[in-house]
Each structure stands twice: as structure tokens, then as C-alpha cells.
Design goal:
The protein has 113 residues and is mainly beta. The protein has no helices and ten strands.
């Protein structure tokens, strides 16, 4: 059974940083592309970053390009999202997900101005 658990969210001020962690189990993590998605209050899911199984290919949504960095540790089955220069509009619930959209419970990120 695929299991994903996110952590690292919190309340920060605009311009600050956070690092999210997603611990994966129940599947061969090193062979699966993964992604981070988020959902702002009252809005739909929005992909944030996509990372290939080897981390050789990483794509970012235009709204986070240059500020967020996705990475992974395939030895530890962990996916990371380092978020720098956070903006109020980055607030929402952040999920890690498999390429076929299996998600964890999410972690809340709130950025205050």
C-alpha cells in the first residue's frame, strides 16, 4: 500500500523559508516520478514541482520557479520541497503525490504579510 506522509509546514512571514518533507513507503520510491501539489483555500489543486525518479528532470510551476527547489533522497525514500522567499499566495495545503495522483494527508503552509 502506497503511503505518503508530509511534514514541515507552518506559519511564516513573507520572505521567509520552509522545507517540506515527504516520507514514502509501500512502493519502490526510487523508480517513481513524484510531484508536489498544493491547494489554496477555495481553489483547486495546483501542481508545484515534478521530479523524475532519478531527479535528473525537475519542472516547476511558473509561480514558484527560482524560489522553490524539489529534491529527493532515494536511499531514504524521502521527497523534499525547499521553499524560499515565500509569498502570501503560496499559502495552502501542500501534498506530495505519485505521478498517478496518490497523495498524502498534506501539510499546511501559511504565509503572513
Amino acid at each position: 500500500e502506497v503511503r505518503l506522509v508530509e511534514s514541515g509546514g507552518g506559519l511564516v512571514q513573507s520572505g521567509e523559508s520552509l522545507k517540506l518533507t515527504c516520507t514514502a513507503s509501500g512502493f519502490t520510491f526510487s523508480k517513481r516520478a513524484m510531484k508536489w501539489v498544493r491547494q489554496a483555500p477555495g481553489k483547486g489543486l495546483e501542481w508545484v514541482a515534478k521530479i523524475s525518479s532519478s531527479a535528473l528532470v525537475i519542472n516547476y510551476h511558473a509561480s514558484v520557479e527560482g524560489r522553490f527547489v524539489a529534491s529527493r533522497d532515494n536511499d531514504k525514500n524521502i521527497l523534499y520541497l525547499t521553499m524560499n522567499d515565500l509569498k502570501v499566495e503560496d499559502s495552502g495545503v501542500y501534498y506530495c503525490a505519485t505521478a498517478d495522483d496518490i497523495r498524502g494527508p498534506g501539510t499546511q503552509v501559511t504565509v503572513s504579510s
